[in-house]
Amino acid sequence: MARDMSDKEILKMELEQLKKEVNTPRTPVTANCAEIVTFVEELLPNDPLIKGVPDDKNPYKGDKGGCIVT
């Protein structure tokens, strides 16, 4: 699509897009952090990296050597 347009048309299109992006409302990161922390904490009990993998289900245990995440 851009190959069919002149440089002037491409710049005009980019300028229109930038005008839209400038008007986009921004929220501070701290406003969203509480939701993210709550979401992550809800998933913690089921996370295999934190909970650990039982030795009988660990494919890297036994003949192949051990794999320990610390």
Automatic annotation (TrEMBL):
The keyword Lipoprotein applies. Residues 53-64 have a biased composition (Basic and acidic residues). It is a lipid-anchor. GO terms for biological process: G protein-coupled receptor signaling pathway. GO terms for cellular component: heterotrimeric G-protein complex. Keywords: Cell membrane, Lipoprotein, Membrane, Transducer. The keyword Membrane applies. GO terms for molecular function: G-protein beta-subunit binding. Residues 50-70 are annotated as: Disordered. It is found in: Cell membrane. Gene3D superfamilies: Transducin (heterotrimeric G protein), gamma chain. Residues 1-70 form the G protein gamma domain. Guanine nucleotide-binding proteins (G proteins) are involved as a modulator or transducer in various transmembrane signaling systems. The beta and gamma chains are required for the GTPase activity, for replacement of GDP by GTP, and for G protein-effector interaction. G proteins are composed of 3 units; alpha, beta and gamma. Belongs to the G protein gamma family. This is Guanine nucleotide-binding protein subunit gamma.
